[in-house]
Request: fold
Amino acid sequence: QVQLVESGGGLVQAGGSLRLSCAASIRTFSSYPMAWYRQAPGKEREFVARISNSGSTLLYANSVKGRFTISRDNAKNMVYLQMNSLKPEDTAVYYCNVVGPGYWGQGTQVTVSS
Reply:
């Protein structure tokens, strides 16, 4: 059974930083691209960032480009999202996703105060 467990969310002031982590219990973790999505209250879930299975190719939403960095550690079955220069509009539940099979974690709340 595949499990994705996100952690690292919390309350931070605007301009601050957080690092989200996602632990994936999937045997073939290194075979899959991984992604982060987020969902703000009353809004649809939106794409944030994606990383190829090797980690060599990165893709970001325009709204986070230059502020967020996605990375992964295939030896540890982990994917990360470093979030800097946070803004109130970054407030959302952040979800980890296995691209392809479509597995999702339970999400971690990020709240940015102004």
